[in-house]
Amino acid sequence: MTKQFRPSDLATLVVHAGEERDGGGLVPPIHRSSTYELGEPETFDDIRYIRLNNTPTQKAVERKLGALEEGTALVTPSGTAAVWLAIAASVGPGDRILAPVRVYGGTRKILDHLAEREGVEVRYVDLEKPDTWAEALSETTRAFYMESIANPWMSVPPLDQVVAFCREHGLVSLVDNTLATPALFRPRPFGIDISIHSASKHLNGHTDVVLGAVIADAERGLAIRKLANKLGVCPDPEPCFLLNRGMKTLPLRVSAQCAGALALAQALDAHADVETVHYAGLEADPSHGRAAAWFGGFGTMLSFVPSGGKERAQALIRALRYPVEAPSLGGVETLICRPATTSHAGLPAELREEMGVPDAMIRVSVGVERPEDLIADFEQALKASASMSAA
Ligand SMILES: *Cc1c(COP(=O)(O)O)cnc(C)c1O
User: Fold this and answer.
1) CATH number of 7-247
2) Which CATH superfamily is domain 250-390 in?
3) Whole-prediction pTM value?
4) Interval between CA 92 and ligand 1 midpoint (Å)
5) Domain regions of the chain by residue span
6) H-only helix segments in the chain
7) Model confidence pLDDT, tens digit, residues 295-340
8) Most buried residue, 97, 170, 228, 321, by CB count within 10 Å?
9) Would you state the pLDDT for residue 5?
């Protein structure tokens, strides 16, 4: 029996929600079996098989995630699969979807594919100009896609206006909540229809899993699950087990990461060799007011542009002791990269420029290390790479 909790009890929910004690064990086991005894199935959906996304290890983690974000959760083999399924279940040939120019590179590729090959019309809008959204509407517009914190600018869109606009025009709202996580923001109670995650990031938090998730109401959740079943898109039990374990420390990790990100953002902001810092925790940041009003913290990631161009930025990265230069984010270790060569590398240079991703921009996913150690490391690396500034 699953116990009931108030939605606000996140720290309690991550530990207890969805857990079913199996033979007295405190931890849900990994059920490796691909298929299950038939018994007396009443419908096709009673047949249990890993590819049908309905076996116990996956269901355990889906119960927890569904409780955290108040909906029906589907865990997918990657965040990319989650984005794809959520969009493909919301729009078809001839339909239009609105999306921001500033969107995750992989999502942009999915939208481009759907536009080129599947007859979906994509209109890119500026999330900071709500007055212009209506101009992008047509009779066939069905959905509005965005991210609750957009990477690498760490910007928070006017989500209240998005909810109102989607209700007024009968659009499905989709939010990629990967960077915020339910520890900072829960899209569905806020009024968003579909929440999407790369669970490879904060939800798992230990850089050893690739998974995704979609959380929706029961009806849309079923449609998305059926689409996944038809495509043969399903996660394996082992990563589902690891995700269930990782989520139990989500609020602890995220609050430590937010504290570290704020301290680092303030130190970089005060540094003479840093031109720009993007972090909602800085009072001058355009997203400060929204994050303060709606989020349980200012975020675990920041980006900044040092003076001296991309050569200096690269020298700075190489001079750091703790942050590892690697793509991905949300783990306990601090990761660093230049978006121009990672998340947005697949896009043409002109599009990167249009999106506002300069080559010298550095993105930091702050881990759970002691903030003072990280700050001292960035200060020595800024100094060590300073000679490049003149170049
Ligand atoms: C990483 C990421 C994805 C893709 O997730 P994968 O698990 O790598 O497929 C989608 N959206 C955002 C915001 C991400 O950071």
Assistant:
1) 3.40.640.10
2) Aspartate Aminotransferase, domain 1 (3.90.1150.10)
3) 0.95
4) 23
5) 7-247, 250-390
6) 10-16, 56-69, 79-88, 105-117, 159-169, 181-184, 187-190, 218-231, 237-247, 250-269, 288-294, 309-319, 349-355, 371-384
7) 999 999 999 999 999 999 999 999 999 999 998 999 999 999 999 9
8) 228
9) 56
